[in-house]
Amino acid sequence: MSSGNEILDMYIYETNTLLEQLENIILEAEKADTFSQDNVNEIFRIMHTIKGSSAMMEFDTLTTISHRIEDLFFIIRENTMDVVSEANRPTLFDLMFQSIDYFRAEMEKVESAQPLDKNIDAFLSNINSLIAKIKGEAPPESAPSGQEASAPAADAEAVPERIGDGNSEFPYELRVFFDEGCGMENLRSFMLVASIRDFCAESDFLFEPSAVENDASTSAQVIEQGFLLMFKREGDREKAISVVRDAGSVRSYQPHDFHPAPAPAVEAASPKPDAAGEPTVKAPAATPTSSTSSSSPVQHPKESLISVNLSKLDMLSAIVGEIVITESMVTASPDLKGLNLDTFSKNARQLRKLTDELQDISMSLRMVPMANTFQKMNRIVRDMSKKLNKQVKLTLVGEDTEVDKTIVDSIGDPIMHMIRNSMDHGIEDSEEERIAAGKDPVGEITLSAQDTGNEVIIMIRDDGQGVNDENVLKKAIKSGLASPDVEYSHREILNFLMMPGFSTNATVTEFSGRGVGMDVVKKGIEELGGSVSISSEMGHGMTTIMRIPLTMAIMDGMEVSVGDSIFTIPINNIRQSFKVSSQDILRDSVDGEMIRLMDHYYPVIRAKDLYRLPGGTDEIGEGILLWLESGDYSYCLFVDELLGEQKIVVKPLPAYINNFDVKDYGIMGCSILGDGNISIILDAGNLYAAAQSL
Predict the structure, then answer these.
(1) How far is CA 422 from CA 199, 379, 594, 611, in A?
(2) pLDDT digit string (tens) for 27-36?
(3) For labelling alongside 235, which of 186, 440, 625, 645 has CA 20 to 30 A away?
(4) Distance between CA atoms of 131 and 678, rounded to whole angstroms?
(5) Which one of 519, 549, 579 terminates a domain?
(6) How many Cβ atoms from other residues are within 10 Å of residue 44's Cβ?
(7) What's the rounded Cα separation, in Å, for the pair 638 and 580?
(8) Can you spell out the DSSP letters for 104-168?
């Protein structure tokens, strides 16, 4: 039997997915200032599903709210959007956004096992008030009209041929069809059974397929022929109808009384009336066609998708990583050196090919598009536009770019911070200011994502007023972050914005000013192994660029040695490697060692000196330089030798080592080499910062 946690996880996942769909529908509808009929049908279906699944989980407040919103859209569906006057449409849109926020807040409580808010009277009053305005009368005291939407539709489904031969001892039948593509039909069927057991003894009813609890393959039978419930007593069936009516994702249901046929000829005589007195038409067994039921507006092709718990994907990635390590240990075993093993070498190459393919597939399973994260920013811009009284449009580019699921979950907040900063202090306060500056009165924020192969580049750009260097420098000096006696470059001034606690706001407002929270953005992105850079031109806006690795599990790395120590540097940070002589190195008393490359001078960092290693060479001519780039940093790292390129599995450092802030010294993790030794993985950006601080 499925555990309660699995059912709850399914409920949370399904509800959050529906809320995302709902928000996108409302955002687009508000732009058009109306709901299309398809929109209305889809919203009705979403609220009907949330109502049913919440009732199943016994979340009464969520059931009540969703039921009343369902009633609201039942009225709109029956009378079209003409019933909602233009004066009431802004209220309708605001109410729907409030509903989304309410459900999301309550879902967070469900996830954290906190009690739900029982006081929903004010919210219900708002919904009832709008319904009254639309109907032109006071809210009725009778039962919600949403029940009408779930009324039995005798002609909604052609009744398929009987599953089995029927049972005269259980003649009161009820056949249930679920929404097409809702998924997990066997589990949904069993949930109905579990609810029915609350009022009906197991000996008083049967159900077919009988293995829905334990056999997922029965879903296909339920999809094709429906889920059949059979009762001894008619009263139990009537109670079951109430359960089915309130269940989630139910497209239609059909009561029917079973009467054994004395002879085949009798069956062909005439249609038999059902319990409601309506004739029941028999048809050949087939997949149910489009229903006239209100909760199934549009047929969509069913996708071959399944949802998988992220922890299982984590386990898969870990196992694939161990396979990659083991394969390297076998093929690079020192016991094989000097042996002529043609067959082994051929098989080893095939094993490497298959291992690479397995690795690529396991990584692709974790890759999800940025679309959901990007779409959520529409709501931020919409709400802030209203509160700040600014006309702003959000342009999304590259939202289909795919990134590791863990990274996608982590970058939502940094992107939100930057969007808020652009809205609050980036875009000018009035249309008059923009017109005077020769700009479109409607401000624009562009959010884009680009996959470069090894990393994804996320860019947030606004066409606002840009950063005032003078004001930023004054605030930095006042905060003790800068010295009045030093002349700072434009880039150095911009870097003050990412200092902890720095803000250009004179007063605290609801939204952070440019710079507020940017240290959190920088820290969050760096924890993902990425980097943040900002640029701005006075009067022309500001651009924030976040560079984030596509995945943090497995990467291509270059192994280097310094004495007896082995380090790994991500390939995407290496621009070039070359040998030089000591005459090519310039020495400066302030900046230390420098080298000239392509008419520019770059600092030279010696890994031996940085990490105070006992071995390794000091002679430049005996080692090799690696030209590294990370974000705004570009420099050369001096090591003894290049050992070769290899795919590496990134392993986190033990917790007790992280207590020493090793990331501040340019160390991001470690990897196990083919010979069993451990290699330290270097973070090119933090390594440069560590060298500068010494």
Answers:
(1) 57, 14, 38, 40
(2) 998 988 899 9
(3) 186
(4) 67
(5) 549
(6) 23
(7) 10
(8) HHHHHHHHTTPPPP---HHHHHHHHHHHHHHHTSPPPSSS-THHHHT---TTTSPBPPPSTT--T
Whether 178 and 105 map to the same domain: the answer is no
Q: How far, in Å, CA of 313 to CA of 549, rounded?
A: 18
| 3-class secondary-structure state, position 53 | helix
Identify whether residues 196 and 138 lie together within a single domain: no
Q: Do residues 372 and 430 both lie within one domain?
A: yes
Tens of pLDDT, residues 453-469: 667 889 999 999 988 88
- Give yes or no for a contact between 200 and 236, defined as CB atoms under 8 angstroms apart: yes
Q: Where are the alpha helices (H) located in 197-267, listed in sequence order?
A: 218-225, 234-246, 264-267
Give CA–CA dist 440/642, Å, rounded: 54
Q: Provide the CA 239 distance to its chain's centre, in angstroms.
A: 40
CA distances from 616 to 94, 398, 554 (A): 67, 46, 28
Tell me the C-alpha distance between 264 and 478, whole Å.
96
User: Hunting for tokens 């407002």 — which residue is that?
Assistant: 509
Domain that holds residue 138: 4-149
> Are the C-beta atoms of 72 and 132 separated by less than 8 Å?
no
- What SS3 state is found at 438? coil
pTM of the prediction? 0.59
Give the count of domains, the chain. Answer: 5
- Whether residues 217 and 127 share a domain: the answer is no
> Does the pLDDT of residue 397 top 90, yes or no?
yes
Q: How many CB atoms are closer than 10 A to CB 576?
A: 12
DSSP string across 326-373: HHHHHHT-GGGTT---HHHHHHHHHHHHHHHHHHHHHHHHTEEESHHH
Together in a domain, 401 and 538: yes
Length of the chain: 694
